[in-house]
């Protein structure tokens, strides 16, 4: 069966039972102190991350990272921090490990990171996740055992599923990111137009920009990805060509 799938004969020179027995014997020797020239390294069996906009998973600790380890990333305001384990691009295709809730977080402009998320795995495979509001110092934590409910077969299956669906997942992820980016540009652009005085509103560049905003809005309603990508490029080109306008002032 293996040969029919892979197109080549499997290597039968090793007995899998003997390999397992040898590995267990070596580990026992290391733990007992009888073997001193071998170092056993533990790694994370699957990637760990959090949910972001569009149901996408943002990886914080990659699969096969040596443990113990500690990693962190900063995010914009989030009330619920959904912790996930797996190799797929979307929340629904990964294993949920829990949710960290931060209450009474002040609002902030989009794109400004105010939540620091820290993932720390100790030598026993225990994951501690801390979400800290950088503005107020308020923080919440949760602790989980990252391999508690998954067998080796289940872990292997999750890795295989990710490999088989990698192309489809990336296409879907790119589409979501494109529409999310366009929606952000649309909101920022509308704020920009709302702050223009009457004299500027009649300038040719702003008349053109107003038309561009209308096209972006129509594409969002139609969910036309190709048109959306084109108008996003035009939007970015507008601000690149008009350096006197700072988009950050309208975020």
From TrEMBL:
Keyword Plastid set for record: yes
Instruction: Report the Pfam families cross-referenced here.
Output: HSP70 (PF00012)
InterPro entries according to UniProt:
ATPase_NBD, HSP70_peptide-bd_sf, Hsp_70_fam
The domain of life is Eukaryota
Task: Identify the keywords attached in UniProt to this record, alphabetized.
Answer: ATP-binding, Chloroplast, Nucleotide-binding, Plastid
Q: Name one GO molecular function term.
A: ATP binding
PANTHER family found in the cross-reference section:
HEAT SHOCK PROTEIN 70KDA
User: Per its record, how is this protein called by name?
Assistant: Truncated Hsp70-type chaperone
Q: Which gene encodes it?
A: dnaK
């Amino acid at each position: 069966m293996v040969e029919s799938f892979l197109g080549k004969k499997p290597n039968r020179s090793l007995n899998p039972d003997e390999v397992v027995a040898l590995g267990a014997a070596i580990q026992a020797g290391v733990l007992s102190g009888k073997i001193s020239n071998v170092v056993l390294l533990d790694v994370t069996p699957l990637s760990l991350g959090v949910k972001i906009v569009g149901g996408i998973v943002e990886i914080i600790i990659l699969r096969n990272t040596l443990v113990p380890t500690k990693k962190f990333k900063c995010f914009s305001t989030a009330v619920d921090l959904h912790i996930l384990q797996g190799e797929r691009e979307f929340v629904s295709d990964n294993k949920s490990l829990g949710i960290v809730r931060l209450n009474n977080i002040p609002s902030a402009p989009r794109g400004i990171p105010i939540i620091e998320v820290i993932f720390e795995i100790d030598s026993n495979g225990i994951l501690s996740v801390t979400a800290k509001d950088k503005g107020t110092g308020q923080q919440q934590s949760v602790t989980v055992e990252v391999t508690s409910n998954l067998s080796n077969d289940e872990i292997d299956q999750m890795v295989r599923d990710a490999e088989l669906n990698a192309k489809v997942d990336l296409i879907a992820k790119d589409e979501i990111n494109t529409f999310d980016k366009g929606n952000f540009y649309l909101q920022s652009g509308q704020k920009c137009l709302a702050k223009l005085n009457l004299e500027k509103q009649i300038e040719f560049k702003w008349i053109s920009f107003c038309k561009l905003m209308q096209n972006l809005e129509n594409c969002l309603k139609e969910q036309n990805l190709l048109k959306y990508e084109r108008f996003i490029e035009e939007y970015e080109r507008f601000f690149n060509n008009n350096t006197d306008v700072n988009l950050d002032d309208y975020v």
